[in-house]
Specification:
Largest sheet: 5 strands, parallel
Number of domains: 2
Distance between the termini: 101 Å
CATH superfamily of the largest domain: Response regulator
Radius of gyration: 45 Å
Number of strands: 10
Strand order of the largest sheet: 2-1-3-4-5
CATH topology of the largest domain: Rossmann fold
Shape: rod-shaped
CATH class of the largest domain: Alpha Beta
Number of helices: 8
């Protein structure tokens, strides 16, 4: 292997055997796999039947298929392969044709300078692998962006579903609150710390002497002392019943500690004014 992350293959195409031998000798110290062909069609066949060839060096004037025609086909079928022209003809029109039609990386005149040619080859290969790495990174980025798009789409769907669930629960809570408010009995609910978490309209009516809303207040400060004493007993025993008189009303209080699935214990009180529901 070379300094690069894969085996480097260089195809040299020239109708002069001595030129091909010189190019082979030039790369003896490099860990390149050097392939040779004496005609353009032969070079095309080698490319078709060989693993990736990163770089092609071609003579310009060859019988049958000249270098530009050959490199044009290379460009059309293997566009990533770096293409270099070696030629003893420095005609400007030839250079322009090679650049335009063959999309060559560099036009090098014969005879060449060995050090310059080796430096050119090294730079060309660095360019090849840099472009390859950039393409791989771009593909990975595109794949990551596509995956992120799918995640975002799924997230949006989940958010919509969750939002709809929350809306449903809110509607259910409103309906439940309306049902509780319509009950002919007073209902109070509080957590073990004594925070009042539910109070229907009937309870607010019976406890009319209490200023402001009961919800969110501590029972010790929001309810009369007599009622708090009954609640204390219920919390000790788990249930209980008591009677108090407040604001000129005689009230029967029934209470029980309840634990619902996934919810901490709550205290539920039902309050009846004297004469309601058969209470005397």
């Amino acid at each position: 292997m070379t300094m690069f992350d894969e085996q480097v293959r260089i195809l040299c195409v020239d109708d002069e055997t001595n030129v091909l031998k010189s190019l082979r000798r030039l790369f003896l110290d490099e860990n390149y796999e050097v392939l040779t062909a004496e005609t353009g069609p032969e070079g095309i066949e080698i490319l078709k039947n060989t693993a990736t060839v990163q770089l092609v060096i071609s003579d310009y004037r060859m019988p049958g298929m000249n270098g530009v025609d050959f490199l044009r086909q290379v460009y059309e079928q293997w566009p990533d392969t770096i293409r270099i022209v070696l030629s003893g003809y420095a005609d400007t029109a030839v250079v322009v044709e090679a650049v335009n039609d063959g999309h060559i990386y560099k036009f090098i005149p014969k005879p060449w300078n060995d050090n310059d040619l080796k430096a050119t080859i090294s730079n060309a290969l660095e360019r090849y692998f840099l472009y390859k790495r950039n393409r791989e990174l771009a593909e990975k980025l595109k794949k990551a962006n596509d995956q992120l798009l799918v995640v975002n789409q799924n997230l949006e769907t989940l958010v919509e579903q969750r939002t709809e669930e929350i809306r449903f629960h809110n509607r259910a809570l409103i309906v439940a609150q309306n049902i509780l408010d319509a009950l002919p009995v007073a209902v109070l609910g509080m957590d073990p710390a004594g925070l009042i978490v539910h109070c229907n309209q009937k309870a607010s009516s019976i406890l009319s002497e209490v200023n402001g809303s009961l919800l969110g207040n501590k029972r010790e400060s929001a309810l009369p002392q007599e009622i708090n004493c009954i609640i204390d007993k219920i919390m000790v025993k788990g249930d209980g019943i008591g009677r108090v008189e407040t604001d000129g009303k005689r009230i029967t209080i029934k209470g029980e500690m309840k634990k619902f699935e996934g919810v901490q214990e709550v205290v539920i009180l039902v309050l009846y004014e004297e004469g309601e529901n058969g209470c005397e």
